[in-house]
## 1
Amino acid sequence: MTLLRHPERQAASVRQKHPSGGQSGPSRPPNSLRKFNAVPVVPTRQPHTPRNKHLPPQPQALARERPQASIPFKTSSHTKLHQRLLKLPSKITQAEREKREREAASRAAGMGSFKVTRISEGPVKPASATPDETLPLAWVDRYPTHRGLVESMHIFRSGADAAPGVIREALGKALVHFYPLAGRIAEGDEPGAPAIRCTADGVYFAEAEADCSLEDVRYLERPLMLPKEDLVPYPGDDRWGVEPHNTIMMMQPGPLPELPVLALDYIVLDFPTSYIDDLKKQYKAHSGKFCSGFDVLTAKLWQCRTRALKLEPEAEVKLCFFASVRHLLKLDRGYYGNSIFPVKMSAPSSKVLGSSIMEVVDMIRQAKDRMAVEFFQFAKEETDQDPFQMTFNYESIYVSDWSKLGFSEVDYGFGPPVFAGPLVNNDFIASVVFLKAPLPLDGTRMLASCVTKEHSEEFARGMMEDLS
């Protein structure tokens, strides 16, 4: 986490780092679904559990012995993919740190930008004792292509003077309940399967100040337009003795998949709630059924992107997003691990283009309806297909919905953020993230890195064509 502040003007920016999907932590679903087994963490416990002691007795449904997951991890075929997903060196030396700072200063000078000075850095540890144990990750988090870290930026309009102390104290208290986040990722009992070592070593926290206010840089409304290295500090383990969150070395080398390198444009579009509600009403009139705002925006996205790509009629276009399976697992209260399963669909480009938006919504709804059956088939090993096997080509697009994660409601005592979103700009995954639009806007913001420059104008025009 990094806090950036101006010493005189009230402007603060907070960046958090968390595992993919915006949710983190170990988990243990019901015994019948052994692929998803892990130890539960219930954050509603009392915060003064002595070290070397485990949590209070678990509910009987979760306390039974669970066999280890039997799915092969396919690490060799995903090694390079995981390296590119993680994009974190195992150790950053002082020389490398200074080199990055010089490069950032050079870029800033060329842009006529501003100076940022690091004030302090170091670990924030849990405020009181936490269990000393090693917890297995849920299976989905052990899968090689899902081990990357997702970085996010949270920007606040005011509170710079109070923010360092408030956030540091709040973080220390939160880590008592969510103590695995203060641990380190290490190799577990199963070869190639990372686990969480609950060491209470803490999370990285840095404080810096700039000779400008966030208002001067428009609150970093388009953060990915800036070099990521200028925004994200990388703690060197030689600086404060931290075993890095890096599982690359746990994977066996082998044949590397060929991955495309896509020069994707970064596009930000906002959709008012009234516009989304109108599309949902149209779908109700079309089918007699309800749909979500995610459904209609994703349908429009898939069709507009397919049109912009100008593919051959028979070319297969693919859409993928992850859906929650919490309702299928019937998890106990307090579970906060990942419970997701991929929803995939594929169709000839001619079908996507020849359908109405409402018919594309039908395709998405049908895929979501199939998800429960596909999930249980996979969990019970009744299928040979691997639903987590991903395709990375220009015809495929991946969509994430962050609009309900609650980031926009986080308030440390100086108001909600003016922006909260991911810092993800992979060069080999065409992706879109939906966020709750920042105040004072009312609606959904789309962060898209899904088309190259030659297709971006037509894609954006198609997405906005029926907005009043």
Note: The first strand starts at residue 2 and ends at 5.
## 2
Amino acid sequence: MNQKRSVAIQRLFAAMSGAIFLGGFTGMGVAQEPNVAWTEGPDTVKLGENIAELALSADHIFAGGDDTRKLMEMMGNSVSGQEVGIVSPKAENQDWFMIFEYAPEGYVKDDDKDAIDKDAILKSYQEGTEEANKTRKEKGISGLHVVGWYEEPHYDERTHNLVWAILAKDDGGGQVVNYNVRLLGREGYMSATLVDDPSRLATSKGEIDRIISAFSYKQGKRYAEWLPGDKVAKYGLAALVAGGAGAAAVKLGFFAAFLKFAAKAWKLLVVAALAIVAAIKKGISALRGRGAEA
């Protein structure tokens, strides 16, 4: 990425630090200007240390785990420490972003692929989000409400990918979709989370599929390479949908534990969208405009 674009990014993020996003996101302090090392495609980028890689296309940009955490922290969001990268498009008519996180939880068995209780999980999301709104209110952040499934959970036995999407809205009526993919591996799973406006997701969906198709685990890390004696996760697919990174809470009691966990891990659903989506969407959009002048 040329120097002019790098300077543009730094100016944009500095300017966005004090902004109000999605009609009611307030209470953030002024963030320090982040120094983000963006990689422009086409290129092959690594996701974690010897875990997976992504064949980045010419119309996408990428930043690694450390920079992903910088972006999230700049906007006042907690980080899991599992972030391994972020992808965003260059196209002016696309403003989504996708965050990758890797959880080395062990091999997730897919025995329960036909027993995912979609209604019960949706209810847990809704109740957990309303509980988490108490924390959001204390932070001066607009409430968030899960409307329903944008895409119901489904599992692809061929690719070992688990997909679902949630539609949510904030107190001001602004809507956002949190689109989730869990790419199962031998030693854990990679989370790919995309946040976008529902009116544009139909277009973004094609980009999601392209990126996921360009993802691959390193040799020895693939789901099909599991061997007896390897670590096995203590939960299955249903728990991944219900809690994501908080799925380990299943040991305390499936849905009850999730509700307890949600108050602390409020970014599990779409809270990251309220803080990050406007920053990256506005920042990358403006960057593209300046880049055209480079």
Note: The CA atoms of residues 128 and 260 lie 8 Å apart.
## 3
Amino acid sequence: MDQDMINPADLAYQIYQDRKHEAEIWHQEQKNIIDEATSEKKEEILKEYKETYETAKDKILRRIFTQFSQLMKDHVHTITEYATRNEEVSKLFVYLVENSDRYKSKVPKVTINSKTTPFDEDNGLIMSLLRESGETPEKMTIWSDGTLFHNGKFYSAKDNIKLVNKKGEIKPMKIILITKTQLVAETTVEKLIITPQDMLMERYNIL
């Protein structure tokens, strides 16, 4: 078709559409540039924040573990007795013992999957510190709500144990409750309630 025959209105509309399309392309390019710059700045800020956070966290942990280690050296018996009062405190205590030891040595520990209690997983340090303070862990019994420390081992609810009575009869049982005044254990056919007096008089003992 001859260029002279094009309707001016159609030509104007075509020019408008072309310019609109060019403007959209330019706008998208500018948006991409801004997004890229914003993303880079965001990553830069996040990296800087993370480094600052990790540095602050490292200082705080160092201070906490250093103070905890010193407390364990000075008051190990008191802290250990307090730590056995309930499950939450016991977990926190084990966390501090494990991580303060790792923090000082910088040597990662090997994690062994087992069904032992939380304290049994890493009580070597606790036993060592008790002996250094003049205590004999293998002859100690501490009753508390949630945990029993007896003859160098920690026991808590859901632990499987072997009880022996004065007659020498051995009964495999499962602990369902420990308080300051009793240990409740059961099998599928019976339930036993053992008191500190029972342990003291050796009516029952845990193998």
Note: Confidence is low (pLDDT under 50) at residues 105-119.
## 4
Amino acid sequence: MFNRFRGVYMRYAAHHKPAAAVSHGLGAATRWLPFDHGTGLRFLRDALGALPAALCWYLTRGPGWKAKVKTRLGLTMDERAPPPDPQWTQQLIQALGKAAACAEGRVPIYLAHSLGGGADQHLKREIDARLAKQQSAVVLRFGGALRVQVELCRPEGRLIAAAPDLALTHHLLAPLTKRRIIYSCAVGDSDPLTLPQFMLDLAGKDAEIEIRFHDYFPVSPSYCLLDKGDQYRGPVTAARSDPAHQITRPDGNLVCLPAWQAAWRPVLKAAARLLVYSNDSHDHVVAAFPELSGRISITPHMPTWETARVTPDLTQDRMVIGVLGNIAPQKGAALICDLAHRLRAQPHMSLALIGTLDPAFKLPRSALTHGPYHPEEIAGLARRYGITCWLIPSIWPETFSFTTHEALATGLPVMSFDIGAQGDATARAPNGYPISFMADGDLPGAVLDRVRDLPCRPGQSPPERCPPRHIAYGHALPRSP
């Protein structure tokens, strides 16, 4: 329920040091705890007393909830979110000024989301590298309780504020006169149509802008380029009329795809750097914005670990299809559920998920689910569950796909649909087996057909094949003729 509160708050969280309410179980790295019952309300009342005075909550769950919560907690709150406490606001402004004075060059201001995932992990590694060099960074995180969470990341700790609108955010960042604006991902923002102009305003006349395509949000509100019904039907241009590529603003106005792309075009043209992470991503961006052709840098991610090789056990009597990653709808959640049900009729085949599944979906009991994992554990888990091949079930054109490269690095056969960065990587690898993608086709059936054609199946002698090559993360792959 905490994520349904709205208000303005600020807290300081030093590395490995608890926040003010640590005696109540609230630590610096801990999310607000959910509650539903009276005991939770009493906990919240006690926690509020231990947090800084600037912490003020504002509930927007539904009619009557504001009054009920205020009555139970004994709080007096204005119906509108109050402005930040001047003392804490001044502390943040002073800290930003100090960070600017101590910076070697420009201070990066990252626009990020609150959903986690690959983009967030990439950003965390980048900020950690800056902190190791005693350099600061600012993250503007969208999609939380208030519109923007302002995070000043410093070697001595983080200072975190939340602002209800972009104007206040812009004001708080005034001390950073030397800045770089880096868009990572802002999916989840309440009014994303205003973000392109916000970035231009932040940049002013001399700050550089960098746009990173971790997904396709600048191309379409449907940031995975999926039409209605989670169907991928090729690159999205302004001519696409599918309702999935429209968005409704907070004022109720409907924004069509041409208007969306028109809003993003100025900041894309103004950007000093446009980064994509695969050749396929380059082609999707250029399809929507042809004028950007020639200005886009293809910069695949660098690996941060080594995945060990796995030798399949050809003596086992079952073929185990391994699915790697945290599987959301666009990652193929419905597909693997359908596939797992069909495998129940195949006595010598089964499915094992190394990762997690969106809770809206459910695998049959015949399928194994390992849960969260670390990349360095992949080879050991493949051996533990007897995985004989991998399936990357994504039904959207991935912008890079770490899981595809991790699966390929094990040396086991890897299947994926022939779309996106995952299709490019699979097609180029000796142990890759692309599957023809058909938006309205029987995708689980296509996977089963491909599985039956794989070499090195249990009970068969392995055919002569060239050994899997080293997977090159850090260089753009050559284009097909």
Note: Residues 1-84, 461-481 have pLDDT under 50 and may be disordered.
